[in-house]
Amino acid sequence: MRQDERVSATRASLLGAAERLFAERGVYAVANRQISEAAGQGNNAAVNYHFGTKADLVRAIVRRHSEQIELIRARLVAGVVDADDLREWVACAVVPTTGHLADLGHPSWYARFIAQVTADPALYAITKEEAAATAPSMRALKEGLNRCLPDLDAGVYEERSAMTRHLITQMSVERERALAQGGPTLQSSWEDLATGLTDAITGLWTAPHTPRP
Amino acid sequence: MRQDERVSATRASLLGAAERLFAERGVYAVANRQISEAAGQGNNAAVNYHFGTKADLVRAIVRRHSEQIELIRARLVAGVVDADDLREWVACAVVPTTGHLADLGHPSWYARFIAQVTADPALYAITKEEAAATAPSMRALKEGLNRCLPDLDAGVYEERSAMTRHLITQMSVERERALAQGGPTLQSSWEDLATGLTDAITGLWTAPHTPRP
Fold first, then answer.
1. Domains observed in chain A
2. Which residues of A lie inside 8 Å of B (Cβ-Cβ)?
3. Following DSSP, what letter does each residue of A62-97 receive, concatenated?
4. Of A36, B11, B143, B205, which sits most exposed with the smallest number of CB within 10 A?
5. What is the pLDDT of residues B145-169, one digit of tens each?
């Protein structure tokens, strides 16, 4: 193996170990040393050497996925048939995640990793930066959604955006965890979860909203 | 202080410390010894002595809250004005949590504690057992909801129940964490969060559902 291939293999193995440990235990519960050990690296400083800080490591893991996710999203956004149909745009927000999880196969840790990362405000900011950098289709998706949404106060819009994010993440976590533990799953496939989420999130966005003081 | 008062104060202090540590770090990341220390107990075996296993400790924390939550839920269910109005029943599902969090004041850890506990299938089963044991109003709430819900496949019903649970938990976690960190919050009060959740969850339940293969 050439030197650059060896470096690349080491980095991939560290990223994989970090993703799994972060997903299972939480980002701050895991020391860089444990990641190096789980990746079979004799050198305990391997994470620092290859990635720098923990935030840089999280960024590298997010990037690896967001490139794949962007491919799915770009294809979906380009394939929208009726640009005035809210449900089609909601599907463009849901399927990049569920489709990516289906592509990852079994076992995956991505859903649980993202749930841990987005629960931390500083790390969540990193994932948003990465998404902005690597997801040119996100802008078209937002425009499409906004075109179909009812007129909402800014506060309600922010709130329902957060709800959408939590639903996609937590329902994916629930399915990924059930698959990992060999337990029963609520849906027979990731496609079925996407259908259920798309229906429900469309209902959530079109629900009447009560004025607040 | 009498002996039984001392025992009672020790138990309360251990429960408070355990709830905070579980909320911040996750149930399995925290050792009983750390809880004893955080509660200012010289005896490292205090948790084992007073509560037994970690599952017993989680059950005791859940019970302390579920008694308060039941009082709110029972009052709301008894006060339903139009039993055919889905939104009223959804409010009976949302407000016991948000109202309890408002009652706890600042700082609270309950939302983050519940998120950690319900993410673990074994611990989640404990909270459901506790809820069944301490929440007689839950049955009336379920009957009220079922009375108003559209006809749904069992799978869709289960799925939307899970979504409802995740929305209430995660939106409460987001607000509780923002308050704890002194950051901006999406809503100006727990009451506003309850209104937003009730609107959205009503929309989620009444959304048309696409048949699945």
1. 1-52 (1.10.10), 54-206 (1.10.357)
2. 25-26, 28-29, 119, 121, 155-156, 158-160, 162-163, 166-167, 170-171, 173-174, 177, 181, 183, 186-188, 192, 195-196, 198-210, 212-213
3. HHHHHHHHHHHHHHHHHT-S-TT-HHHHHHHHHHHH
4. B143
5. 999 998 899 999 999 999 999 999 9
